[in-house]
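Take one protein record:
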Amino acid sequence: MAADTEEEASYLASQQVDEARHMQFYARFQDEVIAEPATIAAHVARSREQLGDSFAVIFDQALVSAHETLAANPADPFAKVDFVTLYHLVIESTLGLTAFEFITRLDPLIDAERIAAVGKALAEPLRVQIVDVLRRSEQRVCQCELLALFGINQSLLSHHMKKLVDVGLVEVERRHKWAYYSVSPDALKELTTWLG
């Protein structure tokens, strides 16, 4: 698409980046989940049968027509608006949100109870600060350092650390009379993956 102004060029560039991200997601979904082009073709054919005439009107007529109009006159601002608006309504509203709902509802990799338990453990600001200190440290952190850093007593620290250890977010190693803590790499990876 041709851009007439710097503002329009910026907008179109952001849309291209957004579409590249979508294509990466759909390519990854294709490779890792479906892994067979014929499966996608069969799914699209089945979808067309189930979705009916409205699907064909939007995808096969309106979207194609808007694309052809824009391709014939890429500088026409009305053609740009028509195509971009329709494209986003079709791709993001129809396909993207449907796929998002389906994936999040049915993804067996999401352990919702576990994520909720971790979220509950992190609902206390002091625990978030403790996890942040542990996350940034290259070594296990002694409880004595946490006591001094946060200016709290042993009983309160033990209470908070138990919550974090119980949900598997923090690991503990005993050395003589002291406990040394670190963030569980697996739990941190799981959480950051879920947050996306």
In short: The domain at 112-195 is CATH 1.10.10.10 (Arc Repressor Mutant, subunit A). Residues 117 and 167 are 6 Å apart (CA to CA). The mean pLDDT is 80.
